[in-house]
Write the structure tokens for this entry.
Amino acid sequence: MTWSAPRALIDHAALRHNLGAARRLAPTSRVWAVVKANAYGHGLEQTAATLADADGFAVARVEEGVRLCEAGVSRPILVLEGALCADELAVAARFQLGLALHHRGQVALLEEAAPPAPLACWIKVDTGMHRLGFAPAVVPGVLEVLGHRCGGVRLAGLLTHLANADVPEDTSSVQQCRALQALAAGRGLPLSIANSAGLIALPAARTEWVRPGIMLYGASPFVTGCGADLGLAPAMTLQGPLLAIQHLAAGAAVGYGGTYVCPEAMPVGVVGVGYGDGYPRHAPTGTPVLLRGVRVPLIGRVSMDMISVDLRPQPAATVGDSVTLWGGGLPVEEIAARSGTIPYELLCRISPRVHLEHLPETAGEPAGLRQ
Ligand SMILES: *Cc1c(COP(=O)(O)O)cnc(C)c1O
């Protein structure tokens, strides 16, 4: 056995393949690769290096943008939540980060600070999600202020975020697109609307700039189905080692609370991964893991450092085997659905104690597509 801790294999060929898929959907759009939350758990700097062909990178926070700059990224960087105070704005100006502006306080900061070199600013418009953004009615006034009184601003365009794009038949997404287009009419401003779901399912959202996140990592943004159905390759495979095999008698209770009771004499495997690594504690009995190419079910409660699995379907299991929790051969979407969550949460909650092992790009297809 060469390793005892869980690891996440990051397939850089898959990342590039998925960026290509995003580009093919909107060949005339420019692409911000969304790399917030440590590139959805895949490693910010390494992911940005692999996706260097993107037209820019989008992050949630100034701090994330600074990390990209310090890693040598020279493409435009957009901070989706903008700068919230003068200090943050000064940092954004120093690193020339693009900012989304969503409330008047941020505009006032820019008026006061007057950054020496103009910052690319996107006006975030609330077209129906009711989270961040200016109401459409006040946008003309904001544009006026930025155009006339803010020397440190280069107005880059209008941006909005879709609330229901993960349900393609929901008509509110089209209405959101129309609301933004109506505001832009006659102003010649670039628009940015699409997240992954909008990019894949909503042609009206494929405007000057698109903002795919989850699809770059190979997971589906939709409520059902998985990335492979969309031609995407999973970029992360989470693995843990098989630490032990127990031969238990009928009636033996397994794990905390003894919630699983062996129906017969059976082999039970203990895998060294748990909720302390980011595996969901709510994964119920029956959630599959992959062991030597065969699905075996999780049994009993998920512990901090371990889970137990029913080894009856895989008699060849050997201590030291590496067990796949999700990724190539076992879609993260399936584990998320079983656990009552979405792949986004599972990917970005990988804990820092999971070692990210970056697999260099090879000439061939990404591993996830070869299965
Ligand atoms: C996270 C985020 C995205 C990317 O969304 P995906 O569903 O992961 O493609 C795009 N735009 C904004 C504003 C976001 O916050």
Q: What stands out?
A: The chain is about 25% helix and 25% strand. Residues 34, 36, 80, 161, 195-197, 211-214, 221 surround pyridoxal-5'-phosphate (CB under 6 Å).
